[in-house]
Amino acid sequence: MSTALSIRNLSKVYQNGFAALKGIDLDVAAGDFFALLGPNGAGKSTTIGIVCSLVNKTRGSVEIFDTDIDKDFSTAKSYVGLVPQEFNFNVFEPIVEVVINQAGYYGIPPKVARERAEKYLKQLGLWDKRKEGARLLSGGMKRRLMIARALVHEPRLLILDEPTAGVDIEIRHSMWAFLKEINEQGTTIILTTHYLEEAENLCRNIAIIDHGLLVENTSVDELLHQLQMETFILNLGIVLEKIPPLPGYEARLVNPRTIEVDVPKAQGINKLFHYLSNEKVEVLGMRNKRNRLEELFIRLVSENKKTDVA
Amino acid sequence: MGWREKTIAFYTIMMKEIRRFMRIWIQTVLPAMITTALYFVIFGNLIGQRIGDMQGVRYIDYIVPGLILMTIITNSYANVVSSFYSAKFQRNIEEMLVSPVPSYIILLGYMCGGVARGLVVGVAVTGVAFLFSGVHLHNILVIISFAALTAVLFSLGGFINAVFAKSFDDISIIPTFVLTPLTYLGGIFYTINLLPEFWQHVSLINPILYMVNAFRFGFLGVSDINVGISYLIVCVFIIGLFTFCLYLLNRGHGIRT
User: Domain boundaries in chain A?
Assistant: First the structure.
């Protein structure tokens, strides 16, 4: 399978001496839906900035579909569409002009640009607002406008830097569906997000950056497989004063009708229900305390912190 | 990116700039017409009648070319400095930086936007001048070429100002403290022959003097300076500023991290 993005020994040291990236290697396969995760200030946006020519790298190489950004920046850039974290369009320009102008920067003829602007603004539910100034849009609409703008030159690689930040649940779900659809049509997608549920639902592969280093780079399935323990919240049909014996499980009483149980992967969950059943404890509902990926993310980042201190 | 794509990209940037200043014509085109009309009423008619002739020309006619050129200078400069700084401030300059459009196309697009505003406002002000004075056209080619070259030069100046500007205050410092004094001292309202010899020599350091005089030659056929030297100086400045602008853009000064 060909590679959409290949990064080698990428480093960035800012003028104030802060090393945002300390020599990372990363490959993203063509057609992948890839999550780039990390805490704030980990180096995700710097990586994206370098790939998209917004940040000058200190060292290393970046290839987009086998084209080195230093050797043929024009071709390399034509492959990429970026949805940045911050709104960065001219707020006084009509929405349709924002999209058409972007097409023009890629050398797309005006007629084709207008057709594509209509196509993507319609798909993203913004066509009715096309003549309005971008400043009049809601937060969710602004995000969708940036997606339409990034897609207008039909890039092979779409990079989204926290695309659903500050977006309500309904719009977030519609954006997920849209992104899944364009990924299925062949566009490689790299996503950074703080919503780990988003990464788990959408992405096949994942990399975690922390303190400028890559601390994990694997498939989501493989990563979730590493999870040794999950914590579940159980809503009960009866009132409990104390927790019944649950051998092999650690449980805590959250309130008389709710308990929290740590379930080791080796132990499984069947026995837990068996014990509860024997004690005549009816379970009305159950959910994960934290998203599974979130559990792993916190573990990996805190492990990296310990290594840093050591 | 082939030549066809580059042409489309250039046209997109230039038209975006033209649409921007035409959308806000009340802020961009109209004020210059009103200010120039006031200059003609006060300096041309009221005071000018008492001054009499300057270099054998009625005073109101004498100041027409300088006032038109001053408008071209301020508007071409203001267009690029405000537009490019706003693009930096709102970060929509990133729209171009992530695209394959080369730096020189970005520069040409902004520059031509500035030139377009300079010339549109210049033509509007010339229309106003017709109402107040009998405008002569001694050499139309000199008029057009100097209007265009001056607009190019000050568009590039505005671009450099915008690249270095870190706040909205910074985009008004150069126009207020450098451009306006140089323009007023560039012989718009007087011939440098009126000055003592020492100040005549000092005036020759001012590049705007060469532009005003060449432009005046185009209208009236009179000039303090040889027009050929004016062409040479303006072209040298344009080449120098264009090269510097391109260097700044390629380095990403003020626009890339």
Answer: 3-225, 229-293
Q: A168: which residues sit within 8 A by CB, 6+ positions away?
A: A140
Phi, psi of A207 (to 5 degrees): -130, 145
Who among B5, B86, B94 is closest to A107 (CB)? Answer: B5
Q: Nearest Cβ partner of A53 from B1, B19, B98?
A: B98
**Contact (Cβ atoms closer than 8 angstroms) between residue A208 and residue A37:** yes
Q: Which residue has the tokens 């997606």?
A: A147
Nearest CA in chain A to B106: A105
**Statement: residue A195 has pLDDT above 90:** no
Taking domain A229-293, whether its CATH number is 3.40.630.30 is answered by no
**Between β-strands A213-219 and A205-210, what pairing exists: parallel, antiparallel or unpaired?**
antiparallel
3-state class percentages of chain A: helix first, strand second, coil last, to nearest 5: 35, 30, 35
HSE-up of B222 (CA within 13 Å, CB side)?
Answer: 21
Tell me, yes or no, if the two domains A3-225 and A229-293 fold the same way: no
Asked whether the predicted pLDDT for residue A95 surpasses 60, the reply is yes
Instruction: Show me where the domains of chain B are located.
Output: 3-251
Determine phi and psi for A236, rounding to 5 degrees: -105, 155
CATH placement of domain A3-225: 3.40.50.300
Pick out chain B residues at pLDDT < 50: none
Tell me the pLDDT tens digit for each residue of B223-249. Answer: 888 889 999 999 999 999 999 999 999
B146 φ, ψ (degrees, to nearest 5):
-75, -35
Cβ neighbours of B252 in A, within 8 Å = 56
**Assembly ipTM:** 0.85
The Cβ of residue A135 has, within 10 Å, a number of other Cβ atoms equal to 12
Q: How many CB pairs lie under 8 A apart between chains A and B?
A: 88
Distance of CA A273 to the CA centre of its chain: 34
Mean pLDDT of chain A: 86
CB of B19 within 8 Å of a chain A CB? The answer is yes
C-alpha distances out from residue B190 to B14, B66, B101, B131, B173, Å: 36, 10, 45, 22, 26
Express each pLDDT in A244-300 by its tens digit: 888 888 888 888 889 988 888 777 888 888 888 888 888 888 888 766 666 666 666
B3 touches chain A (CB under 8 A): no
